[in-house]
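COMPLEX REQUEST
Ligand: S-adenosyl-L-homocysteine
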Amino acid sequence: MLVDERSFERARLRMVEEQIRARGIRDDRVIAAMRGVPRHRFVDPVFFDQAYEDHPLPIGESQTISQPYMVALMAASLSLVGHETVLDIGTGSGYQAAVFARLCRWVYSIERCESLARKAQHRLSAMGYKNITVVVGDGTLGWEAHAPYEAIGVAAAAPNIPAPLAEQLVPGGRLCIPLGSRHSQVLVVGVKHGAALEIQDVCGCEFVPLIGARGWGARYEELSD
Ligand code: SAH
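STATUS: Structure written out below.
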């Protein structure tokens, strides 16, 4: 039973060794960020015991906090060095935004569901994060006001890459997004060259759907469960 901050920290360090380093993620800054962000504070207390386990967890509104390895893999795929402005799509609990915030200058995070966005914003402020802005909106349209971005991370699965996201990247900028159907997707990383993205597959994955004007239609969520 996890009861105090010391046991949470032990569980977190074990998570980084067994789920992240053991699977080949070696970026020291990503490792430090994953050791530093207390994932249990992003889940309901009934899930405290599972906060450092190797899977997503429910966060309400039929959504989930991503598997820790997926967050680390996405962060590593974006190759952040510290000066970047990053767009995080699908705020959810705010966990991925918190990890990104330790790796770059500023995180703009968009969440479609208002109650999740409000909760995440409160949680992140209470935890002392000062370089994250959360907004309610359709992330498939990006966030033009703060573009261009050096990196964009999308934590929900799309049928294909929403065009506004590619447009809002700087030259050489990186986009990481799961692409595919409801229960089978590939995490890809795209690097912007000219107007196009050069795409590489990272690995298979399973994320909740990205619902929006340039993603899946709203009925997709109910239809495909
Ligand atoms: N990064 C989150 C994981 C969230 S799951 C975390 O660390 O907790 C994906 C989230 O994407 C859900 O909260 C869902 O509501 C949101 N989402 C789905 N479509 C979206 C869209 N078009 N724009 C913004 N958020 C979206």
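REMARKS: The chain has a mean pLDDT of 96. The beta strands are 57-60, 63-65, 85-89, 106-111, 132-136, 149-154, 169-180, 185-193, 196-205.
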